[in-house]
C-alpha cells in the first residue's frame, strides 16, 4: 500500500493499537451470534457489542460520484458508456475483473488491523438473481451463483479476522427510491414500490440468503432495505420525508422478516425508515424480538440534538440503534460523530472504504488513461480509441486493489485513536540533524486544537446557512487544514487569522538552529509567529510582498535533545506555506 508520509514510528503505534483492538474484538465480539437486548446489541455471552464497521461501497454497486463520472450516475449507465468504448465482451471482462480485484482478503485484513470489528456489504440484487424483466419464466426466481460465491468469500475473510459481516440490500429489485444511483434504478421500469413482482423477488432473495447463512455466527445481521426514499401518499415527496404512515414500506419489511424467520431464527434483522433511514412514522413498534433500528447521518452537526429523535424511539420501543451509514466528511467530523454515538451505546458503519478522493481510508489513484476517459465523458476531450480505453480501464481496475491504493492513515487515526485520545503524534518522523526539511503539509496527527487549529473543519452540506467545507483543496489530508495539490507537490493555502500547525521533530543533539519558513503572499498582508515547546521564539514575522515563494528566517532557535514541538502560527492569515527548513549553526 502507498502511504502519504509513511514512517516506522507511526507503523509501530498502529501495530500496538491494532493488536489491542484485535484482542478486544476477540474478547468482546467473537462470542457467537449477535442479538438485540433492550437498548443494546450483545453477543452470546451477554456482553455489550459496539459495532465499528466499514461499508464496501463501489464493489458490488458503483455510483458515479465515486469515480468522478459527472452525470453518469447509475451503474447500468456506467456499463453502457464503457461498452460504447470497448464493446460488450471486453466490458464483461472488465466488470468480472472488477469484482475479483476491488475487494479482496487484503482489504479485510487491513480493516481488522486498523480496529474495525465489522463490515457492511452493499449488495446489488442482480449479482444474485436477474431483474424481473429478464426472468426466463415470469413469476419464477432464477439464482446466480456469482453473488453468493462473492459473499461466501467475503464471509471467509471476515471470519478469519473475527469481523462480523452485515448483509445490506443496497440495490433492491426495481429500486427502492427516487435517488437513482444508490439502487442502480432504471426510472423507465416499475420501481420496487410499483411492482408486486419486484417485491416478491426481494422477499425471495432474503429468504435465499437467510437459508444460506442461518448457521453462520459471523453474519452480524440482515440490513433488509437500504435507504428507502419514496413518497407513497404524495409522489411529489421524492425523499419520503413527509410520509405519515409508510404503510407499503412496513408491509414489505414485515414480509421479508417473516420469510427470513422461516429459515433463520438467530440473526438480527435491521430496518431502515423512509427518507434515507430517517422517517419512522407508522413503522414502529418493531414486529420481531431480534431487531435493530438503523439511521443514517451525513452533513449535519455532530451533537446530541442531531440524534435525539432516534434516542427517543429507542426509549419508547426498547430497540437498539445502529448508525448504519455515515462519512463523506472531514476527520474532525468523523471523530466527533463516532464519539457521540459510542458514548450513547450506538455502533456505526462508515461509508466508504475506498473511492477516488481523500476522505476515506483508501484512495483509488487515477491513471492518465482513465482521466482521458473521464474528460471525454465530461465533454472536455476526445473519446479515446478502443484499445487505449481498454488498457486504461484495466489499469484503473488494478488501481482498486488494496495494495495499489493510497492509504490515508489520518482518516483511520481520527476514527479510532483520536476518539480516545487528544494526544498529537507525528504524521511523519522528522529527524533534525545539521539540516532537514519538513513539508508544511506533514503537520502532526491529531484533532483540531491539538495537532492544528483551523476555523473551518467540516462540511455541513445538509444544514441550511452553514457553508463550511473542511479542506478546500480536497487533497492529501482530510483535516480542516486547506491543502492544494500542484504537480505532485502540496502546500497550505487559505490560511486564516489565529490558525496554526504543529510539527513534532526529533533532535539527536541539542543546539541552535535557523528555521526558514517558505511562504508566499496569497490574499492579504500575512503575519506569522513561531513557538517551540509552548514558548514564543518569533512574532510579527511579515510575509514578503514579493511575488512567488520566499523564505522568512527565524534565527537562533534553541532545540532540546529529543522531541520538540514547533508551531507555526498565522497571527494574520492570507499566505501560502510550503515547508520548514532547519539549519544548525
From TrEMBL:
<dbReference type="InterPro" id="IPR001547">
    <property type="entry name" value="Glyco_hydro_5"/>
</dbReference>
<dbReference type="GO" id="GO:0009986">
    <property type="term" value="C:cell surface"/>
</dbReference>
<protein>
    <submittedName>
        <fullName>Carbohydrate binding module (Family 6)</fullName>
    </submittedName>
</protein>
<dbReference type="GO" id="GO:0008422">
    <property type="term" value="F:beta-glucosidase activity"/>
</dbReference>
<keyword id="KW-0378">Hydrolase</keyword>
<keyword id="KW-0326">Glycosidase</keyword>
<keyword id="KW-0119">Carbohydrate metabolism</keyword>
<dbReference type="InterPro" id="IPR008979">
    <property type="entry name" value="Galactose-bd-like_sf"/>
</dbReference>
<dbReference type="Pfam" id="PF03422">
    <property type="entry name" value="CBM_6"/>
</dbReference>
<dbReference type="GO" id="GO:0030245">
    <property type="term" value="P:cellulose catabolic process"/>
</dbReference>
<dbReference type="InterPro" id="IPR005084">
    <property type="entry name" value="CBM6"/>
</dbReference>
<keyword id="KW-0624">Polysaccharide degradation</keyword>
<comment type="similarity">
    <text>Belongs to the glycosyl hydrolase 5 (cellulase A) family.</text>
</comment>
<feature type="domain" description="CBM6">
    <location>
        <begin position="453"/>
        <end position="583"/>
    </location>
</feature>
<dbReference type="InterPro" id="IPR017853">
    <property type="entry name" value="GH"/>
</dbReference>
<keyword id="KW-0136">Cellulose degradation</keyword>
<dbReference type="InterPro" id="IPR050386">
    <property type="entry name" value="Glycosyl_hydrolase_5"/>
</dbReference>
<dbReference type="Pfam" id="PF00150">
    <property type="entry name" value="Cellulase"/>
</dbReference>
<dbReference type="GO" id="GO:0030246">
    <property type="term" value="F:carbohydrate binding"/>
</dbReference>
<dbReference type="GO" id="GO:0005576">
    <property type="term" value="C:extracellular region"/>
</dbReference>
Amino acid at each position: 500500500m502507498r502511504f502519504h508520509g509513511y514512517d516506522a514510528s507511526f507503523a509501530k503505534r498502529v501495530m500496538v493499537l491494532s493488536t489491542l483492538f484485535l484482542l478486544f474484538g476477540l474478547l468482546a465480539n467473537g462470542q457467537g451470534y449477535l442479538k438485540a437486548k433492550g437498548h443494546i446489541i450483545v453477543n452470546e455471552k451477554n456482553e455489550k457489542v459496539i459495532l465499528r464497521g466499514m461499508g464496501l461501497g463501489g464493489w458490488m454497486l458503483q455510483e458515479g460520484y465515486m469515480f468522478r463520472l459527472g452525470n453518469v450516475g447509475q451503474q447500468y449507465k456506467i456499463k453502457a458508456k464503457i461498452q460504447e468504448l470497448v464493446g460488450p465482451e471486453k466490458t464483461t471482462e472488465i466488470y468480472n475483473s472488477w469484482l475479483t480485484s476491488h475487494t479482496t482478503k487484503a482489504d479485510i485484513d487491513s480493516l481488522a488491523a486498523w480496529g474495525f470489528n465489522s463490515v457492511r456489504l452493499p449488495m446489488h440484487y442482480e449479482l444474485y438473481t436477474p431483474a424481473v424483466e429478464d426472468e426466463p419464466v415470469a413469476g419464477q426466481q432464477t439464482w446466480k451463483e456469482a453473488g453468493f460465491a462473492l459473499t461466501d468469500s467475503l464471509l471467509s475473510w471476515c471470519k478469519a479476522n473475527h469481523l462480523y459481516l452485515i448483509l445490506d440490500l443496497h440495490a433492491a429489485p426495481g429500486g427502492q427510491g427516487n435517488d437513482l444511483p444508490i439502487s442502480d434504478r432504471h426510472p423507465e421500469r416499475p420501481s420496487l414500490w410499483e411492482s408486486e413482482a419486484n417485491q416478491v423477488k426481494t422477499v425471495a432473495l432474503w429468504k435465499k440468503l437467510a437459508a444460506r447463512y442461518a448457521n453462520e455466527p459471523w453474519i452480524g445481521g440482515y440490513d433488509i432495505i437500504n435507504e428507502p426514499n419514496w413518497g407513497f401518499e404524495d409522489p411529489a415527496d421524492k425523499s419520503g420525508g413527509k410520509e405519515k404512515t409508510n404503510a407499503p414500506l412496513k408491509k414489505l419489511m414485515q414480509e421479508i422478516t417473516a420469510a427470513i424467520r422461516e429459515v433463520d431464527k438467530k440473526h438480527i434483522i435491521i430496518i431502515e425508515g423512509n427518507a434515507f433511514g430517517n422517517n419512522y412514522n407508522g413503522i414502529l413498534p418493531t414486529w420481531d424480538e431480534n431487531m435493530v433500528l438503523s439511521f443514517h447521518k451525513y452533513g449535519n452537526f455532530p451533537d446530541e440534538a442531531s440524534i435525539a429523535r432516534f434516542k427517543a424511539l429507542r426509549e419508547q420501543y426498547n430497540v437498539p440503534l445502529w448508525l448504519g451509514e455515515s462519512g463523506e466528511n472531514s476527520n474532525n467530523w468523523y471523530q466527533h460523530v463516532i464519539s457521540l454515538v459510542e458514548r450513547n451505546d450506538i455502533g456505526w458503519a462508515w461509508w466508504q472504504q475506498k473511492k477516488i478522493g481523500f476522505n476515506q481510508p483508501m484512495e483509488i489513484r487515477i491513471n492518465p488513461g482513465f482521466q482521458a476517459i473521464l474528460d471525454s465523458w465530461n465533454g472536455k476531450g476526445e473519446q479515446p480509441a478502443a484499445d487505449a480505453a481498454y488498457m486504461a480501464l484495466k489499469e484503473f481496475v488494478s488501481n482498486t486493489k488494496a495494495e495499489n491504493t493510497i492509504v490515508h492513515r489520518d482518516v483511520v487515526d481520527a476514527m479510532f485513536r483520536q476518539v480516545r485520545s487528544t494526544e498529537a503524534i507525528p504524521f511523519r518522523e522528522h529527524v533534525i540533524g545539521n539540516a532537514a526539511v519538513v513539508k508544511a503539509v506533514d503537520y502532526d496527527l491529531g484533532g483540531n486544537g491539538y495537532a492544528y487549529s483551523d476555523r473551518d473543519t467540516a462540511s455541513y452540506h445538509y444544514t441550511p446557512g452553514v457553508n463550511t467545507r473542511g479542506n478546500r483543496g480536497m487533497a492529501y489530508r482530510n483535516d480542516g487544514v486547506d491543502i492544494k495539490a500542484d504537480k505532485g507537490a502540496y502546500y497550505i493555502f487559505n490560511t486564516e487569522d489565529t490558525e496554526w500547525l504543529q510539527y513534532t521533530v526529533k533532535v539527536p543533539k541539542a543546539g541552535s538552529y535557523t528555521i526558514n519558513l517558505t511562504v508566499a503572499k496569497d490574499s492579504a498582508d500575512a503575519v506569522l509567529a513561531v513557538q517551540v515547546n509552548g514558548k514564543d521564539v518569533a512574532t510579527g514575522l511579515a510575509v514578503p510582498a514579493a511575488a512567488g515563494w520566499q523564505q522568512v528566517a527565524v534565527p537562533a532557535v534553541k532545540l532540546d535533545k529529543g522531541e520538540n514541538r514547533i508551531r507555526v502560527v498565522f497571527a494574520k492569515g492570507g499566505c501560502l506555506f510550503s515547508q520548514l527548513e532547519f539549519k544548525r549553526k
